[in-house]
Structures are given as C-alpha cells and as structure tokens.
Amino acid sequence: MGLHNNQEEAIRIGTSSGTTFGEFAAEGPAAWHEPPALALDETGFIQRCSESCEKLFGYPSLDLARQHISRLFPQLSGHNLVMDGRFNPMIDFLCHCGHLFQTQNRQGDTFKSELNFVRIENDGQRSLRLIVRPFRGDPLPHASHR
C-alpha cells in the first residue's frame, strides 16, 4: 500500500470496494485508527468489540458480548466458523474474493460489508478477530448525523 502526501488527490487504499483515503479519513479519527472489529470465540460468539464497532452497529460492547455473530451478519447463521480445527473454507473463500455480507445494526437497518477473519492463537487459546469494512455503495446507518 503506498501512501502519498498530497491529500487533495484521491488515494486508493487496499479495498475491493473502491474506498479512497479521503472518504475513509472523512469518517473521523476512530474510523482511521480503529476499524470496526470484533473478538469472537471459535463458535461465533462475540467476546468484545472495538469502539468503532459500537458506533457502527449501535450496540454498547456489553450488549454484544455473548451474542452470536449472526445477530450482526444474518448470512452466517447456521454456519460453523471453525471446522476440524480450521477456519471454514467456504467463508474464508467468500471473504477473500470480496463477497458482500448483509449486515444489520441495532435499529434493524441493513447494509453490506466486507469481512476479514483472522485466527489468533495465544497460550493454547484460540479465538477469531473479525474486521468489518462497510461497503461504500450503501448509505451507512449513522450517515444522517454528519
């Protein structure tokens, strides 16, 4: 990823949705420094989420804890995230090819997002980190108070 000092020029960042640096930076400091992210266990239950995730979905972190990921991403309902000790190959394939997942916030508004899962192992404990990239083609649910 190349960064350029001329901020008047639209600089593409590494997303297949075509988001530009200027559009991403316009979302504010939280969007630039902290992408919406969730920590999950291997069964898909949310352990915690980032502040930008709270803002995106309209849920306080405590309300999301112990909820299944399908509350936010209905398409993941009924799918195992981890199978035979490996991340689900079909979900992995969809994430890598830029599939847009239906996303739902607390108010019931739906929009599309790209998802990136990262599998983490620490001291024998396994977990998943999910990074959410809302698709810029849909209006974001919080766009009304800009």
Architecture per CATH nomenclature, i.e. the level-2 architecture of the domain at 37-138: 2-Layer Sandwich
Oligomer: single chain
Q: Into which percent range does the helicity of residues fall?
A: 10-25%
Tally of alpha and pi helices: 5
Calculate the terminal CA-CA distance, rounded to whole Å: 29 Å
- Proportion of strand residues: 25-35%
Question: What does this protein structure show overall?
Answer:
- By secondary structure, this protein is α+β, with helices and mostly antiparallel strands.
- It has a domain of 102 residues: PAS domain (Beta-Lactamase, 2-Layer Sandwich), CATH 3.30.450.
- 21% of the residues lie in helices and 27% in strands.
- It has 5 helices and 7 strands; from the N terminus they run ααββααββαβββ.
- The strands form 2 sheets. A 5-stranded antiparallel sheet has the order 2-1-7-6-5.
- The two termini are 29 Å apart.
- The N terminus is likely disordered.
